[in-house]
Amino acid sequence: MTIDLTHLTLEQKASLLSGRDFGSTKPIEDAGIRSVRLNDGPHGVRFQEAGSDHLGIHGSVPSTCFPPAVAVGSSWDPELAAAVGAAVAREAASFGVDIVLGPGVNIKRSPLCGRNFEYYSEDAQLSGALGTAFVAALQEEGPGASVKHFAANNQETERMRVSADVDERTLREIYLPAFERVVKEAKPATVMCSYNRINGVPASHNAWLLIDVLRGDWGYEGVVISDWGAVSDRVAGVRAGMDLEMPGSNGVTDAEIVDAVRGGLLDEELVDRSAARIIALAERPVPDAAPIPVDEHHQLARDVAAGSIVLLKNNGALPLTERITVAVIGEFAYTPRYQGGGSSHINPTRLDVPLDELRALADGRGVLVTEARGFSLDPAQTAAEAARLRTEAVEAAAAADVAIVFAGLSEAEESEGFDRTTLELPSTQVDLIRAVAAASAKTVVVLANGGVVTMDEWHDDVDAIVEGFLLGQAAGGAIADVLFGVVNPSGHLAETIPVRLEDNPSWLNFPGEQGHVRYGEGVLVGYRYYTSSRTPVRYPFGHGLSYTTFATSALQVEQTGVDSARVTVDVANTGGVAGKHVVQVYVSTAAGPVRRPERELRAFAKVELQPGETTTVSLDLDRRAFAYWDVELHDWVVAAGEHRVQVCSDANTVLAEQALALPGDAVVRELTMESTVGDWFSHPVVGPALIAGMTEAMTPEQARQAEANPDGLRMVESMPMQQFLAFTNGAIPAEALVQFMELSKNPAPAAAW
Ligand code: BGC
């Protein structure tokens, strides 16, 4: 980046480093530096003409409310994520917005997180692929993205000050890779740091996170911005490369920066670097503005929503057939729940009402639609009123061939800013579902919820469950499409639905206490834990049904390098209707010195097949698909040993597998007196020399004893060398140890001492 800053004063440069107001940077008109407009995001454009805020309080100008990330995550379809990214970019451009604040690629650590609706998945492979597709397509249209919230922002409770205490391997393997992929592959114009602390240090001045990892390891060259109001120490932030403070501080922190430079506490070069990055942002071309194609984008929102719906259960109740009576029940059929609360809240251009959309499709099919509200969302509703609504619904259900209950959570129950405390549906809805199921011939439940809900009390009573999550403004039409089979459902769970909240691995450590949340489950997040601990779940990660059936065959796994492979598999549509299938490839291994999850998603692809059609799908697994993060080497390591490549229909169900024997990385660890006897003996160079030396030095009696007791070494294997020597009266000469320790740093074949 060659940006000439010599014509700017220190004050001017510092002024660039914080916002002018809620959503824009400061211009320096004399120097030709324009203001950059930043706007939420991410599943639509929250453009506010007056009264800006980041809590969803004030209204905004209408824009298309596309399905939020929770839905797009369930699509397992990067093409849909890209279509949303491109459309949001066009709408952003129409408002003169330069930077769209999103996507959020944080991992769903706990199903309670109030903002799970804004995140894609509990798995970084999936989140990373979708986030990358979204950002690349968005930026292709002109505006820039802001991938957020970097990093370890996995809860809303105390989000502005809690310390996420996460070990290094877990950060590298679980919480960082989605950001890493977006940064490396899609090069987002900005990265938004999170509010929280990571291992005690606020993200907004976390040098390890922003310098070592983001810019060092991943080569990021764009602008780091703060989440709104995340800055606690501006000067430390500049030192850590946190370029732009948002929303701004009325000049207070700009003056702090100037004072720090003048006082010799801050290197002016660091101010220059951040200023140059912000100028580069302002030099991006102003996106071309065109009016929002409202109908076209509404149709896109409907297509994406339909491609994201997950059919969880179906005992033949769906798709709806012709010439039947359908009772549509539940307040959400009239007042759809389609997005989450907070900064991402969109004022939609249109809003589909599910009941109307069902009627529209029923008309041509000889289907009679009856209706009942079933429950009220009014918290002041009396028990008598609830009973009356329930009775009315039961009567409608009893008179119909199929009852469809629209259930779910209201916006008041889940939003940015707070976490849920339960996974249960409100009891009035549970009572309603049970009563309807008891009275009707067939019951279908359609769910609208940003975070997963448990189903224990009613799951077995109903015939079909359609999980819509939050589907955006065209939710109603998309649900009607799936219920009538106009669209064959192809969504798969991007997060596990547990049987009970207590089964979730973060349960004992969420949302933390006294300012700290300990990520005690380590890398065993979501399905990684459920599969490893054999804990039963309601529906596993990756689960999703279709109106057709698919067969997977002819798996071939071909090693393409020392630590890479190509997976090839045939997929056939063996049913009667066209449909989409997701090939899910996991890797399972116990190789290496660390506890590996039972299996981990490493690649996936969604394919569309006509009835009877077969296609061959090829997916590449690179080194990272086999690697773990080694905390001794602070690097990725591929362990020597068997790695099973598994094609699964969900995280619990292996359809086919093939093992690879990988040579692994030639890792040679440095030996110290703290290293165990086992480490010394198993060292590839020192070990054989040591054994040879010890054998030579043995008396005949010692040799006889060693032979008689081949397991003798096991007792001392985990003993540090220091202690071993004390116990054995210096069995190994001190000079030999020194020589071996030296050798272990720079190994070459060695003789016995
Ligand atoms: C949220 C961000 C959002 C920002 C601006 C913050 O409170 O955490 O996701 O982009 O406000 O509205």
What does this structure look like?
With 753 residues, this protein is of the alpha/beta class. The protein folds into four domains: 34-63 and 74-242, Glycoside hydrolase, family 3, N-terminal domain (TIM Barrel); 294-495, Rossmann fold, CATH 3.40.50; 550-662, Immunoglobulin-like (Sandwich), CATH 2.60.40.10; 677-745, no CATH class. The chain contains 22 helices and 26 strands. The chain has a six-stranded mixed β-sheet, sandwiched between helices. A five-stranded parallel β-sheet has the order 1-2-3-5-8. A hairpin with a 2-residue loop joins strand 6 (197-198) and strand 7. The protein starts with 9 loop residues before the first helix and ends in an 8-residue tail after the last helix. The mean pLDDT is 95. It binds beta-D-glucopyranose. Beta-D-glucopyranose (BGC) is lined by residues 40-41, 54, 101, 148, 227-228, 343.
